[in-house]
């Protein structure tokens, strides 16, 4: 019996389960409404909208569980939030069959990126401080949101923050979980948490045969690929590498693209490496032993599967959760990662200015040509580094040190 209990604790560490649950909670509540809007823009029926959630949930479950177990690292995937925002505008007047054709085209390009390995070669050339600055910029809004959300509901957020601080002192492994419970209890006492209105219903897959329209492929499929790679996969890689996980990126990108390719006819429009939600699973709050944090990725996949299976009930569930509670728990769960990223970004004096530029540009939320600030922030940082980096001395020329006096040149004899 004791052996069974030990095995259960080994396979179901509470901190990893909590990290996986919070990652899914933050991911779904922050962007599911955008996915629904994108599906409605293509004229999806309620059954097709539920099928979208089912396909996305199954795809994220398969990739989270499979890739985390394969590489023993917390590889967390997500649907493309900027991609959904793009679709919400770009699918107006497009049939569902044409939309599915665009999904397949984008997924094929992502798969090709993984197979050829070009994306990983680009990522390998990015200095660590710039990647850390990029990550800190992406996560900054959630750290700030922890405190701005106090304006909307001070009692809930302050209770969560107080419990978090007390637990960090005496129960650090359970700080985030107990903060979530405290917020839920206060919200229930206020009457802002109404779980009784949620109705459970299973989602069913709906297959849509693709139709390939060149204008739709160019105007929807290609931009969907660009924003998924630049605004999602790029910071997703930065999260993994920022916490020291040297996962082979090409196979991971290839598998997300292939899974997307298979599930696209059922509504899986875009999948990628997660950034914000992944950071919840890669930090010390997920597990004190970094070699065991892959379990947080596995549990995130389990909870994503539940979201997919009950896709028809997600909208009603979202309506019961106060937005301030979600913002607060995201901020608390990411405090450690934000701090570590900032420390890594400014650790190297030679690239400190470039890392700060990357951080500020990314945190600004600047968008151009439909591509988010993560890409432009990194580009600004790389340009800063290239311009400000001191030139190396020519080969064979010794550099003069600060404590070495300059060489004295004797005056020239005019008679010689």
UniProtKB/TrEMBL annotation:
Keywords: Membrane, Transmembrane, Transmembrane helix
Keyword Lipoprotein: no
Listed InterPro entries: Benzoate_Transporter (IPR004711)
Region of interest (Disordered), residue spans: 395-416
Membrane-spanning segments: 49-69, 76-94, 100-119, 126-144, 150-167, 174-192, 212-231, 252-276, 296-318, 325-346, 366-387
Highest taxon of source: Bacteria
Name the record gives this protein: Benzoate membrane transport protein
Species this protein is from: Nocardiopsis terrae
């Amino acid at each position: 019996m004791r052996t069974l209990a030990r095995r259960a604790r080994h396979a179901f560490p509470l901190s990893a389960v909590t990290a996986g649950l919070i990652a899914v909670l933050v991911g779904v509540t922050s962007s599911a409404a955008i996915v629904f809007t994108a599906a409605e823009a293509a004229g999806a029926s309620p059954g097709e909208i539920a099928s979208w959630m089912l396909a996305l949930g199954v795809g994220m479950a398969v990739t989270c569980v499979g890739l985390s177990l394969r590489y023993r690292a917390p590889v967390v995937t997500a649907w493309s939030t900027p991609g959904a925002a793009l679709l919400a505008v770009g699918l107006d007047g497009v049939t569902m069959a044409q939309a599915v054709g665009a999904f397949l085209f984008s997924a094929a390009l992502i798969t090709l990126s993984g197979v050829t390995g070009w994306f990983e070669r680009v990522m390998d050339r990015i200095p660590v401080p710039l990647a850390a600055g990029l990550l800190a910029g992406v996560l900054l809004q959630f750290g700030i949101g922890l405190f701005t959300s106090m304006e909307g509901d001070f009692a809930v957020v302050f209770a969560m923050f107080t419990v978090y601080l007390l637990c960090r002192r005496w129960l650090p492994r359970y700080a985030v979980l107990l903060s979530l419970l405290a917020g839920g209890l206060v919200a229930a006492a206020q009457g802002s948490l109404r779980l009784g209105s949620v109705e459970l219903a299973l989602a069913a897959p709906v297959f849509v045969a693709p139709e390939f329209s060149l204008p739709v492929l160019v105007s929807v499929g290609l931009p969907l690929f660009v924003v998924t790679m630049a605004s999602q996969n790029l910071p997703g890689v930065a999260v993994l590498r920022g916490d020291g996980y040297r996962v082979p990126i090409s196979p991971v990108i290839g598998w997300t693209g292939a899974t997307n390719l298979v599930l696209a006819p059922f509504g899986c429009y875009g999948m990628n490496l997660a950034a914000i939600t992944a950071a919840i699973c890669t930090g010390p709050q997920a597990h004190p032993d970094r070699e065991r944090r892959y379990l947080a990725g596995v549990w995130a996949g389990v909870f994503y599967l539940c979201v997919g299976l009950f896709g028809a009930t997600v909208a009603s569930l979202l309506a019961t959760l106060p937005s301030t509670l979600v913002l607060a728990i995201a901020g608390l769960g990411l405090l450690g990662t934000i701090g570590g990223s900032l420390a890594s970004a400014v650790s190297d004096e030679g690239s400190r200015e470039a890392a700060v530029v990357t951080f500020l540009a990314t945190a600004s939320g600047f968008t151009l040509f439909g591509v988010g600030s993560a890409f432009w922030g990194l580009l600004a940082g790389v340009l800063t580094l290239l311009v400000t980096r001191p030139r190396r001395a020519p080969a064979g020329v010794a550099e003069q040190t600060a404590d070495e006096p300059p060489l004295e040149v004797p005056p020239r004899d005019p008679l010689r």
